[in-house]
# Entry
Amino acid sequence: MLTSDGLSCISDRYNEMEEKELLNNIEKSGVGNIYNKLRKIEEDDYLTTRFPRFKINDDSSCVYLDINF
# Structure
């Protein structure tokens, strides 16, 4: 899995879940679920006071490959 800082901030900035939990959630339910949760956190902090940042949200990208041999 590769993520942009805009998506990984759900773990490292917002402390909503641990990195391993992020990976497990994406494996189970896809990145859309995480993306929606991330945007909800950012919407709830529209004034950027709880999580100081320069803009309301950042680009959020993820590439996840499940390779079985």
